[in-house]
Automatic annotation (TrEMBL), chain A:
A GO term, aspect molecular function: nitrate transmembrane transporter activity
Signal peptide start-end: 1-22
Highest taxon listed in the record's lineage: Eukaryota
Keyword field: Cell membrane, Membrane, Nitrate assimilation, Signal, Transmembrane, Transmembrane helix
One record GO biological process: nitrate assimilation
Entry annotated with the keyword Protease: no
Family membership noted in the UniProt record: Belongs to the NAR2 family.
Name listed for the protein in its UniProt record: High-affinity nitrate transporter
Transmembrane segments: 173-192
A single Gene Ontology CC term: plasma membrane
Job of this protein: Involved in nitrate transport.
From TrEMBL, chain B:
Keywords per UniProt: Membrane, Transmembrane, Transmembrane helix
Subcellular location: Membrane
Protein encoded by which gene: LOC140021601
Membrane topology of the entry: Multi-pass membrane protein
Disordered, as annotated region: 473-506
Organism: Coffea arabica (Arabian coffee)
Family: Belongs to the major facilitator superfamily. Phosphate:H(+) symporter (TC 2.A.1.9) family.
One Pfam family hit: MFS_1
InterPro entries for this protein: MFS (IPR011701), MFS_trans_sf (IPR036259), NO3_transporter (IPR044772)
Transmembrane parts of this sequence: 43-64, 76-94, 100-119, 131-150, 170-190, 202-222, 328-349, 355-379, 386-406, 418-437
Entry protein name: High affinity nitrate transporter 2.5-like
Superkingdom of source: Eukaryota
Amino acid sequence: MAAGGFLLALLLLSCLAASSNGVTFSSLQRTLIVRASPTQGQVLKAGEDKITVTWSYNNTFPPGTDSTYKTIKVKLCYAPISQVDRAWRKTVDDLAKDKTCQFKIVAKPYSASNSTITWTIERDTPTATYFLRAYAFNSAEEEVAFGQTTDAHKTTNLFQVEAISGRHASLDIAAICFSSFSVLSLFGFFFIEKRKGKASRQK
Amino acid sequence: MEVEQKPNDLSTQKFPLPVDSEHKATVFRVHSFAPPHMRAFHISWISFFSCFVSTFAAPPLLPIIRDNLNLTSTDIGNAGIAAVSGAIFARVAMGTACDLFGPRLASSSLILLTAPAVFCSSISNSPVSFLLVRFFTGFSLATFVSTQFWMSSMFTARVVGTANGLAGGWGNLGGGATQLIMPLVFSVIRDIGATKFTAWRIAFFIPALFQTLSAYAVFFLGQDMPDGNYSKLHKSGERHKDNFPQVLYHAVTNYRGWILALTYGYCFGVELTVDNIIAQYFYDRFNVNLRTAGMIAASFGLANIFSRPGGGILSDAVAKRFGMRGRLWTLWMVQTIGGLLCVLLGKVGSLGASVAVMLVFSIFCQAACGLTFGVVPFVSRRSLGIISGMTGGGGNVGAVLTQVILFRGSRFSTETGITLMGIMILCCSLPIWLIYFPQWGGMFHGPSSKGTTEEEYYMSEWSSTERNKGFHQASMKFADNSRSERGKRVESAPAPVDQGTPSPDV
């Protein structure tokens, strides 16, 4: 009974979730200018190297366009080449389902003039090719505008991050030692078994 | 020349459980650890469980591993295929090893030889090395064969379905438990302070150590047969050391083994495939987090705690009334319903409905596995090991085929793949219709009108020279004990009276 009620609740919740309308990327205006320190093709190391990002409002747009902007979030986004054959990084127009930009660099209140931050690349950033994108959010936490360091086709000004391997010498040694121990104990087993077999033959 | 020296033959006080003429237990008491029967049961399912935990330790952590090793969908698919393909050959080889060396040595050797692959998963750093460690770790799934062989050696016909189902089911549980264990171990290690890309590596030591310890338990606490270990029985002359080419010949020429291998590919093979893909499916399609995806994926495998054993128990229950024919009918029906549910699983689009359908699907899919091994012990007595190995290997072939065709790269979305997998299940379950035992019948025909007996069926595996030497005695005892497969309705030939050894009343 409880299980049935639980399943029903899950069903209802998931229906509700599915019906909420997401903002689409194609509806956003590119009103922000975003510049970052990495140059085209540069390789940066995760956990060590820093990125300096500067963003500002593009004044060529009609005044008042930025009246709804409350916060800016700058994100690290995958370039198309790092999305090939990786459905978990897919670009989808519905921003609620879009997986292009998975790493948040900073969230700051909006100001029309230049803002800069310097960010050390997180240690768990995967090896891939990236660009940077900034989203402007209104007070309802919905995206209303964006800006990015690359062009509309995401082909220019891309840089790479090289991840840490996660391996340590101690891990390597432990793995080798335990593996050898397993194989050696097998030989020990055979030796014991042969001795027992001989003993029963002598009985 | 028949040499039968069994001074304690008539007294069953030698064993804690009641036994038949082969000293196999006639009852199954799951709470007991009594040696040799119940102890063998517990050791074998625990060691098999550890192998499953190791083989499927990677899938729940794939969202982390794929970023660390820069894997593509194709790389992940290939590694998943590699994980289950090694065991195809290993299972047949294990069947042979059990026939020749006994399940205790065979399984402890395999477990110890594959433990290094699990330890070395911690140090993989590329798609190729990842594939290799999954490939070699997957060999350990061959312990399934030794488990089934061991249970078939320890338990009599009436309870063998139950024993096989419980041992197989509780072992398969590892595929579900690992989806809970690994994310949990990972978060604990990460909370202690390791980065994500190091934490998953350390996490792999847990299944590796567990596997190594279980091999020790098998070697030191296990025993091949109720009367002792093979090495002791061979040397003392009680057990005849069989001729491998003959054992192999009688296995490959028995068409029933091949049919069961195919159909097992579409219950167990499907189970392996789902173990590989389901965590990522829920993580990516429904946007749940790693722990939640792991929990949902785990519930698929955890159903094994009762569903596969349920299949075995069901097999034994229908056999009481309907004999082997009942076992075959039930197997086909349950597996077909599983196929229909699989088609449905790919079609439902909401999280709640998906979880619900997946749970019911898991019960039917796993029960079919248990039902299959209610039939396997009767296909052959002499070549039981190889037949078990072939069927088990067939399970893995099904997993490989399904993943290659449906779940590699980006040709089909995962949900389409799942529906198509359901259709494959429906088609590949049909060959069960063709299985026929002359002494008991098949799905659509009763037993042969020539009045073939169980003895004739099992004796046909031995040549007259071998029979003159008395090598077939174990098969004769088994034939006698298997008469219960006629069911309550006695349509098959009456038990033979003139056979040299008088048959006791059933």
